[in-house]
Amino acid sequence: MANFAKASVPQFAVEVYQNVHLPEGGREVNAVVTVTAAGGAGEPAPSPQPSRSPGSVALSGRSPDAAVVIMVDCSGSMDYPPAKMRSAREATAAAIDALREGVAFAVVAGTHQAREVYPGGGRLAVADAVTRGQAKEALRKLSPGGGTAIGTWLRLAERLLASSDASIRHGILLTDGRNEHEEADALRASLDVCAGRFTCDARGVGTDYEVKEVMRIASALLGTAEIVADPAGLAADFTHMMETVMGKEVGDVCLRLWTPLGAEVLFVKQCAPTVEELSGQRQEAGPRTGDYPTGSWGDESRDYHVCIRVPSAAVGREMLAARVSLVLPAPDGSPAQVLAQGLVRAVWTDDVVASTSINPQVAHYTGQAELAHAIQQGLDLRKAGDIDGATAKLGRAVQLASRSGHEATAKLLAKVVDVVDAANGTVRLKANVSKEAEMTLETRSTKTVRVKK
């Protein structure tokens, strides 16, 4: 089913793919919900008119439609090699050049503490020719030194972004090392504070950082994670990230699930373009209703896997297992705007063929989630020295990648294992694997291919 919102830019559509049939006594309902946003690439919002001279950092008139904070790792390790810091400055300058006129922005230097580089004073600048030039001049003064405490960077970004009423609030974070100067609990607490306040793309440069930390940040803040092994590639990556952010049209969209009395949501996860577990981020939104954050949207499509446990029923009975809506919560507490809606159904039957068939979309994404899990488990076992366990898990990953046509992941796996028989998952671990190959596979393990509908 498809239902387009009439008054939203972009307009949203929800399509539900499922096998509605359950056997007598069956209780578990699975569905893939495809959400598409289209038609939002219109004219950018007019820039706010400054009340002072050009280059003023004070916001006046209405707030710009987006606010961005770039967090640059300036710890001592960024000096090894020196090209790393130089590339980080160039990449940040490229991102600043990609800012749309009127967008609010700031730059933060991150070490064992966070420092405002531009504009300073707890403010955000308004992007124009003058402020871009000033910001890029300020980047020249960045030099490496100190430790790494990423939680402090994120908290400063949150305070800066909180000063803006922009609908799109976004961070870009670059690090090259491990978060060694704060406890894991401190980073976790910072992510809890920032979650729902802004989205954040995280990038690891080089091969000395902790992949799981970068992925944890991106996952908690609904952004993307990527490895940039060669610092020379940073500028192109930062430009692409900023252009993507500038293409967003609406922020703080939630996937809302209503379930009937007696039903239970077992899980909600994004399954394309990446696998992201959303169940733990549920916010109650009324009786038997919960909101799952999806972040900001431009012209794009994403898939979500929802699993509902319903009360058992006799053959011939039918029920609404869930109502899935895309909503835009109102900041003043008034009713949320419903952007689109779809229905998840359950029908009990004694037709064995009907009740045992698996919907192709559900089967595909179940396999994709298993693929991501198998890669992560396999790499962890390899690091722990469990050769047999790692071989079994990575062999299963090769088998799943082959079945689903995930060619990109198959190529990354082939840099870590020698594939003997892809169809049966028979592999041998390579004796010598580059750190870059291993980290790239781990970082990109959650990326999925779309099901062919």
Can you describe what's shown?
There is one protein chain. The protein is an alpha+beta fold and 453 residues long. It has helices at 83-97, 129-139, 150-162, 184-194, 211-220, 234-246, 352-356, 360-383, 387-404, 407-413, 435-443, and strands at residues 11-17, 21-23, 28-38, 66-73, 104-110, 114-118, 125-126, 168-175, 199-205, 225-228, 250-258, 264-272, 276-277, 283-286, 289-297, 300-309, 318-328, 337-349, 417-421, 426-429. Strand 5 and strand 6 (114-118) form a beta hairpin. The radius of gyration is 23 Å and the shape is globular.
What is the radius of gyration?
23 Å
In which range does the helix fraction lie? 25-40%
Summed up, the helix count is 11
Q: How many strands appear in the DSSP assignment?
A: 20
Uncertain runs are 1-8, 42-63
Percent range for β-strand residues: 25-35%
Structural class: alpha+beta
User: What does the overall shape look like?
Assistant: globular
Mean pLDDT: 92
Which descriptors apply to this entry?
single chain, seven-stranded mixed sheet, 11 helices, 30% strand, six-stranded mixed sheet
Q: What's the arrangement of secondary structure elements?
A:
Elements (H helix, E strand, L loop, with lengths): L10 E7 L3 E3 L4 E11 L27 E8 L9 H15 L6 E7 L3 E5 L6 E2 L2 H11 L10 H13 L5 E8 L8 H11 L4 E7 L5 H10 L4 E4 L5 H13 L3 E9 L5 E9 L3 E2 L5 E4 L2 E9 L2 E10 L8 E11 L8 E13 L2 H5 L3 H24 L3 H18 L2 H7 L3 E5 L4 E4 L5 H9 L10
Parallel strand pairs: 2-18, 4-5, 4-8, 8-9, 9-10
Antiparallel strand pairs: 1-3, 3-16, 5-6, 5-7, 11-15, 11-17, 12-13, 12-16, 14-15, 17-18, 19-20
Helix pairs in contact: 1-2, 1-6, 3-4, 8-9, 9-10
